[in-house]
Structure formats: C-alpha cells, structure tokens
TrEMBL record:
Gene3D superfamilies: Aldolase class I (3.20.20.70). One of its GO terms (molecular function) is deoxyribose-phosphate aldolase activity. This is Deoxyribose-phosphate aldolase. The keyword Lyase applies. InterPro entries: Aldolase_TIM, DeoC, DeoC/FbaB/LacD_aldolase. It comes from Paraburkholderia kururiensis. Keywords: Lyase, Schiff base. Belongs to the DeoC/FbaB aldolase family. DeoC type 2 subfamily.
Length: 336
C-alpha cells in the first residue's frame, strides 16, 4: 500500500454511491433472515484490527498523498452548545481552504482545489453554512432527529429533517433510537429509518448507530444491516458524544456489513467513523481498513467520510513537517 490513491474510471458508478443501474440505495423489504443469525467473534475482530497499522505502512510522498485524500473525506464539524453563526462561517471558510497555500505549493497541489468533504452543523446553522459555502460544491450536513440522544417524539424528528432539507442541507445525519437495538426490536428500527429516509427526499441519509451505547459487536452488525435495508446511504459509528465513539473494531464490523449488503443488492453504502479520529496516524488506519476491506472506491468522499474537527489541524501540521522537516505548533493551523 505504497501507491498514492487515484480513481479508476471503471468504478465511477460505485464512487458515486450508486447501484448497478445508477440509483441510490432504495432499501429492501424487511427480512429478519438477513441478520437474525449474525454473531461476531470479538477476538477475531481484535486480531484483524491489530494488524492494520503493522502490516501496511505509508511513508513520505505517499503518506502526504493519503493525508490530502483524507482531507477531502472530512465532514468538518462543530456541534457545541456555544456555537455561533460567526464560528460556523469561519469553519466554512476553513472547509473551502483547508491547507495553507505555501504547503500546497510545496506539495505541487496548489491548483488541485482541495476542500473538505462537507461541513456538519446543527439545524440552527444550516442556512448560514449553505450561504457561506455557496459556489464551493461543499455540501452541508445537518445532525437531526433529536441529536445526540434521539429521544424526541418521532413526528418532531421528521419535521426537523424536513426543515434542514428546506434550508439547504444536502445530507442528514440521523440518530437511531438505541432502545430498538437494545431490546432487539428490529422491525421498529427499520420502520423508523425508513420514515427518516422518506423525510430526507433528495438529501442523503447517514444513520448514526451510537455504537458505544448499543453494547455488543453483534448488535452493531445487526443494526448496520437493518439501517441499510431501510435505505440509508451511509452508516456512521457515533455522535461523538458517547463515552466510546469510533473504534477500528466496530468499524471493521460495519464495513463487513457494507460488503455483505453490496453482495446481496449491488448497492454501495458509505461509511463514516466519527468521534475520536483526531490524529493523522489514526486516520491512516481507517483508510487502510477501507481499502483492504472494501476496495479503492471507498477512499473517496462519496463513500467515506470522517466526522472530525481537530483532525484537520493535525493533518495540516504533518503536511508542513513533510515539506519543511519541522513540526509547528498547533495554533499555526487553526480550524477557525
């Protein structure tokens, strides 16, 4: 895995997150037979993920290329109680221009037009973010359905989705009701996500499983499959607000379910780890996971996103070290 990533023309349909006939994942009828017998061997999962950073290395120019690719997959995020419109607009400016000009010029990438994959905010700031990103091609993602706990009434969740789409959100990151998973009420989970997908209309739906809350890897596997059956375009690990957020173990289980769903239906589903992916070293492990388990197509923002904020500063810092040989202070690479 020493080559820098490039996009084969033969996989354009998958790159766009489409099935064999060019459609988004429409979902399939509920069938518990697809997941009832799923069991996950946690020890085997741990052994597999433990090898990711040791069997593959990415160095020097190749590492810089992989980190630049990672930037294009970041959902640059601010989800704090003290967010303001000014902070969101500054975040959007950073999304448009995520790496300093002198670093890009030194890397020979000054004209590459690198941006982040999206900007992710609460509904309150969707319209401001859409305005700040006008003409950039960067989509706005809105967290929704009572984020992060997901315990508001179902009808209010649907109205929140509709309001964010009306304000211009192109992607909706929904949270599932954890109780449905913990009690094994898979039909209720399916129906809930199906309703969310319908409310999204043309906006893509990312289903957040809150893997730190749903206890077992077997639950993670089943919830992943149910959400994809219900029409999710992406499955996402976490809100970033749980005690445990994205890990390589839960990510491996989720991408294996994506592989299974692709084999059954022909539809490529995206994956988004979120929460705790804060260093350049850690994001390389996730990129290796995607390439080894799903293939080159899942290194593109149409099928891979990273929910993060501080990650971008560390990537920019590592890129500066690559071109200058020196590490700079974090404050020289502000997010906003």
């Amino acid at each position: 895995m020493s080559e820098s990533p490039s996009m084969p023309l033969s996989v354009i349909a998958l790159h766009r997150g489409l099935g064999a006939h060019g459609e988004r994942n429409p979902g399939v009828p509920f069938d518990a037979g697809w997941f009832d017998s799923l069991r996950v061997n946690a020890s085997a999962v741990e052994r597999r993920t433990a090898t990711l950073a040791t069997r593959r290395t990415v160095k020097k120019d190749a590492q810089a290329a992989w980190l630049l690719k990672a930037i294009t997959c970041i959902d640059l995020t601010t989800l704090n109680g003290d967010d303001t419109e000014g902070r969101v607009r500054r975040l959007c400016a950073k999304a448009r221009h995520p790496v300093r000009d002198d670093i890009l010029e030194a890397l020979g990438m000054a004209s590459a037009g690198i941006t982040t994959g999206a900007v992710c905010v609460y509904h309150r700031f969707v319209a401001a973010a859409v305005d700040a990103l006008e003409g950039s091609g960067i989509p706005v993602a809105a967290v929704s359905t009572g984020f992060p706990a997901g315990l508001t009434p179902h009808e209010l969740k649907l109205k929140e989705i509709e309001a964010s789409v009306a304000d211009g959100a192109a992607e909706i990151d929904i949270v599932v009701t954890r109780e449905h998973v913990l009690t094994g009420n898979w039909r209720a989970l399916y129906d809930e996500v199906r309703d969310f997908r319908a409310a999204c209309g043309p906006a893509h739906l990312k289903a957040i499983l809150a893997t730190g809350d749903i206890r077992t890897l077997s639950n993670v596997a089943r919830a992943s499959m149910v959400c994809m059956m219900a029409g999710a375009d992406f499955i996402k690990t976490s809100t970033g607000k749980e005690g445990v957020n994205a890990t390589l173990d839960v990510s491996l289980v989720m991408v294996r379910m994506i592989r299974e769903y692709l084999a059954r239906t022909g539809f490529a589903i995206g994956f988004k780890p979120a929460g705790g992916v804060s260093s350049a070293k850690s994001v390389l492990s996730y990129q290796i996971l995607m390439k080894e388990e799903l293939g080159r197509e899942w290194l593109e923002p149409a099928l891979f996103r990273i929910g993060a904020s501080s990650l971008l500063a560390d990537i920019e810092r590592q890129l500066e070290h690559h071109v200058s040989g020196r590490y700079s202070a974090f404050h020289r690479h502000p997010l906003a």
